[in-house]
User: Fold Eukaryotic translation initiation factor 3 subunit C from Elaphomyces granulatus.
Amino acid sequence: MSRFFHGGGSDSETSSSDEEELYSDHEAGGDEEHSESESSSGEEDASGDEDSSSEEESKRKGANRFFKNFSESEESGDEDRQTVVKSAKDKRLEELEGTIKLIENAEKINDWAVISAEFDKLNRQIVKVAHSGPAPRIYVKAIADLEDFLNETIAKQKVSIKKMNANNAKGLNAVKQRIKKNNKDYAIEIEKYRADKVEYMEGDEEEEVEVKVERPRVRIDPLEAMSIADDEGFSTVGRHGKALQYTPESILKHLRLIVESRGKKNTDRLEQIRTMEKLLEVAQNPYQRIRVYLTVIATRFDLTSSSSSNHISPEQWKFAEREFSALLSVLEDNRGYVVAEGADEWEDDEKQPQPVPGEVLRIPGSVVSFVERLDDELTRSLQHIDPHTAEYIERLSDEQALYNNIVRTMLYVEGLGNTDKSEPRQDSINRVVMRRLEHVYFKPSQVVTILEDAVWKAIPSKMDSSITPRGNSVDVPALVQILCNYLFKYSDGIIRARAMLCQIYFLALHDNYYRARDLMLMSHLSESISNFDVSTQILFNRTLVQIGLCAFRAGLIYEAQNTLSEICGSGRQKELLAQGIILQRYSTVSPEQEKLERQRQLPFHMHINLELLECIYLTSSMFLEVPLMAQTSSTPEMKRRIISKTFRRMLDYNERQVFTGPPENTRDGVIMSAKFLATGDWKKATELLNSIKIWELMVQPDKIKQMLAEQIQEEGLRTYLFTYAPFYDTLSIATLSTMFELPEKNIAAIVSRMISHEELAAALDQVNDAIVFRKGVELSRLQSQIVTLADKSMSLLEANEKTLEQRTQGMANAFQRDQVPGGRGGRGQGRGGQTRGGPRLPGGQQRRPGGQQFGGGALGGAIKA
Assistant:
């Protein structure tokens, strides 16, 4: 080959030296003469080139031309290779990307041994990369995704650590121990990445593009170049290198593309949100801003369906709330534009509508639906946060901003009557007024006052309401009354029923028992509540409980016990009040039903204290049951009846215990106090009952304790009279006054009431201030046994007839009960057409006069009393 080059006469020094290097290994020591001749020919050619430079092109023929082209392409190739020469930093980044790729592949197969090893390698590599600048974003993305994958694996229990092999379990534990400590150093960057992943990584791509532009030898495709902003708008570079132009004229086109892509798979909603944020910057008129706000708020709400959670993140909720507030500001300042639910959509994207002076431009949408969705999303968020953390308090502080938007929405919809006569606004006003009422009814007046003061400070002074006018001093009871009266007048169905229940709840919460009771009786909701939806039934249960608590605070023990018995006697307080789910072992509830139950749960700040509720119910039952047990024990011929099965069951369980220690909880304290009261030690019962710490949770606990002490004294007196009446002929009132530390006038009043109710066979001697007991006809032993036998025979007869009715499918007995009023039906009337023992409740206990139902039940009995 050296001869071939020699014949050409145009060999260069560089090419000859390359040939020497190429063949030096193969011809070392064997071709020395050949090398010398080649080098000498190269020298002659070089000298020849210097002398005849003008005749180069004419003398080069044959292989010389190929050699020339080869050398030129080699030089250009060397130049190209200089542009792709990688620096040490680029090499480290490539190694980093390779390690991250291995970790991602190992995550797909849950190979924690490989993940642990590569994670350690990744951390060693990042130390070298970090010397030349901040940590690259691909590393931040990798460690954030790894931490999320670890938490997801542990939470969902995709892998059982016990079933893993030793290496996998060891790798999982190693990553679990090191990931949190490692990520603390990059906490700020990880938060930025998790807040908006796509924008975070695109920012990295933009930085890389900018660096490449500064290199002189890098060749950039013109389509990938960053376009320059013009006077009308701005442009950005997309993923595929396309320049996107956002101008006021193209806003409607972009919005139509976004709306048409809603509901489709693989739609990047965060990218759409960023696009609409840029559209807001170039929007020039109110119509454009309103359209963009309506679309971006709806897109933020769509994030819920795209994620695994049931609510949007707090950050997205706050963005949506601010955008909704900005939308209201635009609508308030431009009354010529109205957002209406039944409006026709503008079809021409090339031309924007121009409002005619004096007319209203109607835009399709619903501000009421938006504020309702904001309310629902905040409720769902509070349901999923631990209420005993500071995060719950911080999240609850967003309620003020939500309440401001609710009131502003009410003012806006209320003012549509002056601008848009065709808008059916009554239903919208009812919905938003109901939302406002639902944020007020369960709060004390002090809290509502703070809410209202902040609202009217935030609302522009030019705006006012005809329903709730602006005022300096906020009268909370008057505000609730106004909202409820408006809904009573202009709404019907479920909204009207909920408004009634909210007003009753508010009255009971503020110790207005008699008015709350009267409203409940007049509403007749107890008769039709089963026809309403579940959330309204839950509100009904909460209102019922609040009436019972109000009666207890007022010292109305009998009314409190009867009102609370329907909820507390069932043992399902959590479910009935939507404050928790009781998962039973053999439950037949499907996962869908359980999910619905969890969605109905109320946030923690709306809960009624269940322990306090149980304590009040047991205390009320104690005041009724202890005298009743004393009365039935002293008169065997009196038929036994039970007021509270729950209390009796707890009392029997306590009495069966061999060793009874001091009370450990609220329930034990009430039961021990009942035992002391039954034995006549009313002082010990008072001391033990007042020592329960849960009374401190009530308003004015000292007043409650004083009321309890008076009730114990009174019921202790009644228990004493029932127990020892058979052993007395006369009893001095002064003696009773000394024993129970009550004024003689109060004792005389209590005894008179017992005599008038035929609970005590006695007469009051006012001259001598004594009680004269009347001895009834005492039954002999044989007569007592006959009465007992008659009761058992009647019970057996009822059981037989019930069995017969079941076998004959109830046809014959039903006909007999219908045709013969005095017949002996299984559960009908007894001889002589009179009911045996009075009406019975589902639990089998007899109903006290007035019963326990609202339709003439417990509260009806209280009115009759």
